[in-house]
């Protein structure tokens, strides 16, 4: 459905040059649901805008839905739906008029665009809102209207640029339910961007991690976590010998163990105020390893006073790949905004 090679976009303003996208190669097969994940400014939107033919690449090629975006932009646009970051609807228009106008824009006959509009109003639970103006809708309703507008031409391929940004958790979950339902109903391929880690983890079958205009990883969330991150066991152990703790845990996660990992005793092995040593153990299958670790410590005469297994996250993946936390960047930017 999508094949891009060496996709590059450089913006020049005066003396400033921004290399927004630097040589992206990507293939998306029919029916896939792919999420582009990356921090603000990583190049996600720019990549999407090139793939939808809205922006001419500086270099590289892309074939989308069978047509070259550079030479056949009209054919590409006819086959895709694009839901951008801004709100697509005219604020003072009524919901129904917005949908009908979109149908006219695609050259549909009145009977057809009316039928499609009613179907989408029903499918996206916009019933009863047809006569409301766009500006009177809630954030979640507006986003659902955006999805409806993007689907009026029954596209085989749908692009969504940060569909759930700014929505509260309930509205996000609801929007996702609708996106998944629309995908089943219309058998679409979906490419979206997000900087919500949990969203990419839960919903996407494939996550393309993008940073500084380049793809730095591309796999299922599970494979990314397996490959690039560890689960962590967080233990508190009564005792004052970091060496004894390391030796005991080495049998569980040491170099010869079935799941080798790393045992870290921070603070130079100095016990905390409660007399316990805080220990972090990087490993795979953390939940399974936890009882083994506690048992190994017990056999070495050490008492565990607290224990928790934390599953690897996509943020750990990003951190291990870039040395930066996506979660922290998002928080910093939210505070700055
Ligand atoms: N029209 C433009 N002119 C100049 N620079 C631009 C333009 N559009 C994007 N950029 C820059 O290109 C880089 C990539 O931007 P892009 O919007 O693709 O990132 P993004 O990953 O989608 O970020 P966000 O999550 O904030 O939407 C940024 O440094 C941005 O400032």
Automatic annotation (TrEMBL):
<keyword id="KW-0067">ATP-binding</keyword>
<dbReference type="Pfam" id="PF00005">
    <property type="entry name" value="ABC_tran"/>
</dbReference>
<dbReference type="InterPro" id="IPR003439">
    <property type="entry name" value="ABC_transporter-like_ATP-bd"/>
</dbReference>
<feature type="domain" description="ABC transporter">
    <location>
        <begin position="2"/>
        <end position="237"/>
    </location>
</feature>
<dbReference type="GO" id="GO:0005524">
    <property type="term" value="F:ATP binding"/>
</dbReference>
<dbReference type="InterPro" id="IPR017871">
    <property type="entry name" value="ABC_transporter-like_CS"/>
</dbReference>
<dbReference type="InterPro" id="IPR003593">
    <property type="entry name" value="AAA+_ATPase"/>
</dbReference>
<keyword id="KW-0547">Nucleotide-binding</keyword>
<dbReference type="InterPro" id="IPR050763">
    <property type="entry name" value="ABC_transporter_ATP-binding"/>
</dbReference>
<keyword id="KW-0813">Transport</keyword>
<protein>
    <submittedName>
        <fullName>ABC-2 type transport system ATP-binding protein</fullName>
    </submittedName>
</protein>
<keyword id="KW-0046">Antibiotic resistance</keyword>
<dbReference type="InterPro" id="IPR027417">
    <property type="entry name" value="P-loop_NTPase"/>
</dbReference>
